[in-house]
Design brief:
333 residues; mainly beta; 0% helix; globular
Length: 333
């Protein structure tokens, strides 16, 4: 799942039995949650990778000496894992932070590298990204090349379901980018045939089904698409530049965040649910207890303003110049 995963609530109906009669136990009150967001603040001379919690800065991951971005975060217990990039003066270096401290660099700085997505499962940290021309999947610091390196490729999202690790991204065929999904480090399938350029930005697994969001060019415009396994289950009409950046499945409902004609949108089961802003990017979507949260930015005048929306309404402004890349909802322990 691109830059995000949700810690879900366990809901159960319970009956208390008395001596004379049975009566229902009052339902448990809703659990309190914390909203974590990763992105960057561009208000200074250099962009600073940041993590926010409930609308307030939690960590500055970098000092501002070099440009940096936080692309994805995952909360495991009391620890916050963040994936992103920091410029070393020559190239972008892919990195992972644990809470406010750098955990490790995934690349050595010799090539252009990026860490796009992070997922923590069974104490292992999985990161999707690129190093040079290779699409990469890292398990902790150990790298797997998803592609041969003969053509440019990137892994843009990672999702762990049981023992299976799914990654989504793209690989060039020499002339066009082909949207692809990998499973356990090997190509599972290509979502597009390579006639038109395409990319997969987000992957989400529900049961036995793999949902992927991205775009495919139709020869004139980018068309936002969602695939269920290999089948297209949602697409825009192709009349306007459109991209699906993030997909989230809650029960039988498929939620998508993206843009159409520059307008930030949320779709539910193929129908428009909200328009969030007239211009910007909706990067990441999560659904918790029926509420829909989106992280991204809105372009105001000439500035990109990092924001979070809840149910179609602005919830937080995080930075007057910057971007919110990833959102994670964690229940309080």
């Amino acid at each position: 799942m691109k830059k995000v995963i949700l810690v879900g609530a366990a809901v159960a109906a319970m009956l208390a039995t008395g001596f004379i009669a049975c009566k229902p136990t009052p339902p448990e009150p809703p659990k309190e949650i914390d909203i974590y967001v990763a992105g960057y603040d561009n208000t200074g001379a250099k962009s600073v990778a940041r993590v926010w919690k409930n609308g307030k800065e939690l960590y500055a991951l970098t000092t501002g000496d070099n440009n940096a971005e936080a692309s994805s975060l995952f909360v495991a217990g009391s620890d916050v894992y963040t994936a992103g990039n920091e410029y070393n003066g020559t190239n972008w270096v892919a990195k992972v932070w644990k809470n406010e401290d750098e955990l490790y660099a995934l690349s050595n700085g010799d090539n252009y590298a990026e860490a796009h997505s992070v997922f923590v499962a069974d104490g292992k940290v999985y990161t999707a990204g690129k190093d040079g021309k290779f699409a990469k999947l890292w398990k902790n610091k150990n790298a797997t090349n998803l592609t041969t390196g003969s053509n440019n490729a990137e892994a843009l999202s990672v999702f762990v379901a049981g023992s299976n690790v799914y990654t989504a991204g793209y690989e060039s065929n020499g002339t066009k980018n082909v949207a692809k999904v990998w499973k356990k480090g090997s190509e599972l399938y290509a979502l597009t045939n390579g006639d038109n350029t395409a990319q997969a930005y987000s992957v989400f697994v529900a049961g036995e089904d793999v949902y992927t969001a991205g775009f495919e060019h139709n020869g004139t415009e980018y068309v936002a698409k969602v695939w269920k396994n290999k089948k297209v289950v949602f697409k825009t009409d192709g009349s306007k530049y459109s991209i699906a950046n993030s997909v989230y499945v809650a029960g039988e409902d498929i939620y998508v965040a993206g843009s159409e004609g520059g307008v930030l949108k949320v779709w539910k089961n193929g129908e428009e649910l909200y328009e969030l802003a007239d211009m910007g990017v909706a990067n990441c979507i999560v659904v918790y207890n029926g509420d829909v949260y989106v992280a991204g930015y809105e372009t105001e005048d000439s500035d990109d303003v990092a924001k979070v929306w809840k149910n179609g309404k602005e919830l937080y402004t995080l930075a007057d110049k910057g971007e919110a890349r990833s959102i994670f909802i964690a229940e309080r322990m």
